[in-house]
Structure formats: structure tokens, C-alpha cells
């Protein structure tokens, strides 16, 4: 089996620490990832709202590049990327006319998407929750991370069901991983609802309202860190946090906490690249990391 990470443009340009931590976590668990530097944006939101066929063309290009390198599993980091690529993949596999038209345009790039070359698209939280991989993950944990956290799930990873093919219990994927790492998980009612990050490009007041809903609750709870699994959420809760609330709760990618539990250092998890890195590192250093 060959694996590659599809980071998405937001991770590549704003949050490279997410990709780095994901790569190191996978490496520690025995999965070597083939780097691909020629991936493009998945087209979420912008192209998605303008031209559906060009959206599928863009993702057929990304998928065919992976196929040419014999990648079997494409591991995504972003909820929106996961949804969009899975959606395009399902169209390419089910609609022969759409596939023909897309491949006609791809031929100009000497690329072709082949339905015969099976490729699986999975968010890294999904990947780590596969039974054999999760068992390996549990056995690989070296340190317990005793920190009070709240979780923001990537909403587009979970819905719509016709694309995600996930069950209700799968909403606990990041929860299960964090629990194994020893974190104290504080529940609140917006864990699985949209963070508002994808609305920042279109309607900031709505995005702000969605974010404020969380902080009105989280400010009353004893939360050290807000843990996310999508760069849109991180964008909302780090760069745009000041517009949401006067009380600052740092946010961190779940792969960074997993990395600490797997005995990677703060530097290796690139925590200094996070917004409010000094506060995050102070919280980790003060907590019981056994």
C-alpha cells in the first residue's frame, strides 16, 4: 500500500504545522507517506459555487496525479477537502459521461483518471480510527497528556452522509484518539456543528455569530485548549479569535497533541508556529505529561 497526504491550500500556506505533525504521527506508526508537491486546491467553496464540472476536473487532476504514482490511500487533513474530493470521486466513478468529458480535458495535461485504479480518500482522523491502525496507535502511546480540552469536529467530514458514509458513532473519532492520549475532554453542544470558518469569505457577520456561540459556552468551562481537525476551524479560532471573544482559548491541531503523546517534542510538533504559541507551550509545560 502507498499513502500520500493531500494537505489542501489552507494547510500548505497558513498551517504547515498540521501537515508536519500528521506526517510525523504517521511515520511513528509505521506509515511512510509519499510526498506529492503538484497537488492543487480542491476548489471548495469558490469553484464549487461557480462551476461543478470544473470542480470535478480539478479533483480528477489531483486524483490522477496520485494514481500515476500508484497511491492507494489519499489522506486528507481538511474537512472541506475531504468532502469535495470524495464527492468528485463518487461522480467520476458513477457518471461515465462526466468521466469522459473530464478525461478529455485532462488529456491536454497528459493525465487520465482511471476508475480501474482504486484509490481511497480518507481524513486522517478516519485513517487513525481504522481498527488495526487504532490498535497500533494505542500501543504506541508513551506519554499521557493531562490537559482539559474541548473538541471542534470538522463538520464536512461528518456530512452529508451520502458522501461521508459515516455512522453516528464516527462523530467520536477525534474524541477516541484524544481519550487514548489522556486528555480530559469537556463536552459542549457545538462540537459537531459548523465553526463558521468557511463563511469568512462570504459573510463575516454570520461566521462571527457561529463562532460566538461556542465562546459563550466555552468561557464558562475550564477549557485549556480547543482541539481542531480542520484548517478552517483553526483559521476561525486562532487568526480570527479576537473578533469572537475577549477571553482567549488557544487552539491546536489534534495531530499535534497525538505527537506529544507519541513522545515527539514541542519543537517537532511545530507548536511555535501556532497562534498564541507561548500560551500553548506554557499550558503543556504546566500540565502533567507523563
The profile of the biggest β sheet is: 4 strands, parallel
Class by SSE composition: alpha/beta
Gyration radius (Cα, Å) is: 19 Å
- Percent strand equals 5-15%
Cα separation of the termini: 34 Å
**In the CATH hierarchy, what is the architecture of the largest domain at level 2?**
3-Layer(aba) Sandwich
Count the beta strands: 9
User: Kindly state the mean pLDDT as a whole number?
Assistant: 91
Topology order in helix (H) and strand (E) letters:
EHHHEHHEHHEEHHHEHEHEHHE
Total of helices: 14
Question: Can you describe this structure?
Answer:
This protein is an alpha/beta fold. The chain has 2 domains: 3-124, Up-down Bundle (Glutathione S-transferase Yfyf (Class Pi), Chain A, domain 2), CATH 1.20.1050; 141-289, Rossmann fold (3-Layer(aba) Sandwich). The protein is built from 14 helices and 9 strands. It has helices at 9-14, 16-28, 52-68, 79-94, 96-106, 124-128, 131-140, 155-158, 161-164, 173-180, 204-218, 231-239, 254-261, 277-286; strands at residues 3-6, 73-76, 120-123, 145-146, 148-152, 184-185, 225-228, 251-253, 288-289. The strands form 3 sheets. It has a 4-stranded parallel β-sheet, sandwiched between helices. Strand 7 (225-228), helix 12 (231-239) and strand 8 form a beta-alpha-beta unit. Helix 2 (16-28) packs parallel to helix 13, helix 3 crosses helix 4 and helix 3 crosses helix 5 (96-106). The two termini are 34 Å apart. 44% of the residues are buried. The model has no long low-confidence stretch (mean pLDDT 91).
Amino acid at each position: 500500500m502507498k499513502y500520500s497526504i493531500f494537505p489542501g491550500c489552507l494547510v500548505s500556506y497558513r498551517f504547515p504545522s498540521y501537515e508536519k505533525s500528521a506526517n510525523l504521527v504517521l511515520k511513528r506508526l509505521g506509515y511512510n507517506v509519499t510526498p506529492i508537491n503538484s497537488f492543487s486546491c480542491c476548489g471548495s467553496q469558490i469553484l464549487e459555487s461557480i462551476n461543478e464540472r470544473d470542480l470535478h476536473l480539478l479533483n480528477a487532476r489531483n486524483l490522477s496525479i496520485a494514481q500515476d504514482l500508484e497511491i492507494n490511500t489519499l489522506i486528507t487533513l481538511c474537512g472541506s477537502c475531504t468532502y469535495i474530493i470524495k464527492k468528485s470521486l463518487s461522480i467520476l466513478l458513477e457518471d461515465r459521461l462526466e468521466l469522459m468529458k473530464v478525461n478529455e480535458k485532462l488529456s491536454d495535461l497528459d493525465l487520465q483518471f482511471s476508475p480501474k485504479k482504486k484509490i481511497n480518500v480518507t481524513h486522517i482522523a478516519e485513517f487513525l480510527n481504522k481498527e488495526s491502525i487504532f490498535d497500533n496507535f494505542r500501543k504506541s502511546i508513551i506519554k499521557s497528556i493531562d490537559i482539559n480540552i474541548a473538541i471542534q469536529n470538522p463538520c464536512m467530514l461528518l456530512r452529508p452522509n451520502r458522501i461521508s458514509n459515516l455512522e453516528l458513532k464516527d462523530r467520536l473519532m477525534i474524541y477516541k484518539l484524544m481519550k487514548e492520549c489522556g486528555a480530559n475532554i469537556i463536552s459542549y453542544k457545538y462540537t459537531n456543528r459548523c465553526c463558521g470558518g468557511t463563511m469568512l469569505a462570504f459573510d463575516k457577520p454570520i461566521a462571527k455569530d457561529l463562532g460566538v456561540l461556542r465562546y459563550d459556552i466555552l468561557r464558562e468551562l475550564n477549557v485549556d485548549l480547543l482541539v481542531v481537525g480542520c484548517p478552517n476551524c483553526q483559521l476561525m479560532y486562532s487568526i480570527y479569535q479576537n473578533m469572537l471573544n475577549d477571553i482567549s482559548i488557544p487552539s491546536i491541531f489534534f495531530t499535534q497533541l497525538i505527537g506529544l503523546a507519541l513522545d515527539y517534542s514541542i519543537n517537532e510538533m511545530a507548536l511555535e508556529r501556532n497562534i498564541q504559541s507561548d500560551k500553548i507551550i506554557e499550558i503543556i509545560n504546566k500540565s502533567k505529561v507523563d
